[in-house]
Amino acid sequence: MKYLYLHGLGQKPDSWNKVIKETKVSESSVKLSLAEMLEGKSATYKELYSAFSSECDKVNDEIVLCGLSLGAVLALNYAMDHPDKVKALVLIAAQYKMPKNLLKVQNILFHLMPNSAFSKMGFKKTDVISLCGTMAELDFSDSLHKVSCPVLLICGEKDTANKKTSKELCHYLNNPYFHELMKAGHEANIEAPEELAIVLQKFYDNIRKKT
C-alpha cells in the first residue's frame, strides 16, 4: 500500500516532513509537488488534476491519499473517479463545492501581493491567480456517493470555514470519520504535525486491520 501526500496551495511538499516522520508508514509514503506536476503546463485545475491522476495511475498498488486544502480537493476528485484504486482517503480542510465569493476575494488579494510572496509556493503569481480562477466552478456534490472507501475528515479547531464543510461531507460520504484538531488552524500539517500524525496512524492501523 502506498501513501500519497498532497500539500495545499501555499505550501511545498516538505510541509509534510514532520507528519510523515512520526508515522509508521514513512517508507511507503510519497510527497507530491503541485508545482512540479504543473511544470510546462497551463496553470488550470484541469491540467493539475490530469497530472495528479497520472501520478496515481503509475502506482501499481492500492493507494491511500492524504491531502490538505487544494490537495484534499484533488484527492477527493480522484477517489470519485477511481473508487477501486483508492483504499482510503484523508481530507484535511476540505471543500467539495468551491466557495466562489471566497475565491474571488482571495484572487483580489493575490493581485495585490508582490511577486516575491509567491516564491514559497513554487508558483508564479500569474499561475496562482489562474489556478484559483479555474477552480471557481468546481462542485462535486452529485458525485460524492461514488467514494466507496473509508474517509477521515480532519479540520483544525480554528479553521471555522472549512470545519463546517468537513462536517457537511460526513453526511454525504458512505464511510466517514471526523476529527477536530484542537488549537490548530488551516495548515494542520505545519501547526500540529505530531497530533496530526497520531490521528493518521490510528486511521491507517484500522484500515490495515480490515484488509
How many β-strands, per DSSP? 6
- The value of Rg in angstroms is 16 Å
| Helix content percent band | 40-55%
What order do the helices and strands follow? EHEHHEHEHHEHEHH
Mean pLDDT: 91
Q: What is CATH's topology name?
A: Rossmann fold
Domain Serine aminopeptidase S33: 60-127
Keywords: Hydrolase
Protein name: Alpha/beta hydrolase
GO molecular function, one term: hydrolase activity
Keywords:
45% helix; AB_hydrolase_sf; single chain; alpha/beta; 6-stranded parallel beta sheet; 211 residues; Rossmann fold
Give a summary of the structure in a few sentences:
GO terms for molecular function: hydrolase activity. The chain has 211 residues and is of the alpha/beta class.
Description:
The protein is α/β, with parallel strands linked by helices. The chain has a single domain (2-97, 138-210), classed as 3-Layer(aba) Sandwich (Rossmann fold), CATH 3.40.50.1820. The chain is 45% helix and 16% strand. The protein contains nine helices and six strands. It has helices at 17-21, 34-38, 45-57, 70-81, 100-112, 125-135, 160-172, 188-191, 193-210; strands spanning 2-6, 29-32, 63-68, 86-92, 151-156, 176-181. It has a six-stranded parallel beta sheet with strand order 2-1-3-4-5-6, with helices on both faces. It starts with a strand and ends with a helix.
